[in-house]
Structure prediction request, 347 residues.
Amino acid sequence: METNAKKPTLFSGIKPSGTLTLGSYLGAISNWTRYIDDYNSILCIVDLHTITVRIPPAELRRNSLTQLAYYIACGIDPEKCVLFIQSHVPAHAELAWVLDCYTMFGELSRMTQFKDKSAKNADNINAGLFTYPVLMAADILLYNTDIVPVGDDQRQHVEICRDIATRFNNICGETFRLPTAVLPKVAARVMSLSDPTSKMSKSETGDQSGCIFLTDSKDDIVRKFRRAVTDSEASVYYDEENKKGISNLMSIYSSITGSSFDQIANDFAGKGYGDFKLAVAEAVCDRLMPIQEKANALLSDKAYLEQVYSEGAARASALARRTLDKVYRKVGFVAKPRMGRMPEAGK
Ligand code: TRP
Prediction:
């Protein structure tokens, strides 16, 4: 893709910390595909963020490639966007360091994700977990991003990104464009099927009966929806306060079929929860099965995947380098010598 100066820019990414879930698909990926023709889209597999929580190296490598295949299978056409792996573009880590120096200890301490994650990983509250939002700000700001399509839980991260950018601009002069988070109208926050008060999350350890993975078999999907926790009223209508389980299922169904909540309530009036759960499961299977098939085919073509992420890294590096050079100039670093003029080692 040639980046087109007239189109606004979109940046987003997901951590390859596990298998992609229906939550990431509805909350993020399917939203990216809606924008891909009208935005310079820069989509990332954010592996640097992933190591803030311990993960076996072989698993991280496998997840990253699987995630790339799934991005493409979900309709992210690498011809239409810049698709890359974060660790391949060193400017992300480099800008993150500079931005660390423009981010306050206090504001990072107040981030809800940091508080949650440190409670869950009490034995590994590392500095990366703390500065995580700064690296995310670097991701976004490197590309003069206009919009960041993410799920609801990332809203605070985009807010702090704007705060950091504003502070830098005030101190060093106008440098960064301020990005806006865009959330999908429905299903910005898909909840666990087994506990509709908490997010459907791949990184939760233990019980996974409430989480639909993009790799799940049809049988698993049907079984998980059939067992979804609901309420005792047996009437399908949207009430996020009192009917969290049913409202979550309605959001999923609405996001996939395009039906409004009223329409769904009408269509399932007089029918039991069993019928509705099955209809949701079917809609999800109809959407996911072709994606799985395509992803599996892609995963057996490693050479193609390598070509995609290599081209992505080259394009992303060129764009990111421009911003990083500008930032380095603004903070007062001496311009980098051209590599050709560097003295040879040992002389
Ligand atoms: N923090 C995001 C998440 O957990 C992942 C992420 C990292 C991201 N960098 C980003 C999302 C930049 C959007 C833009 O889902």
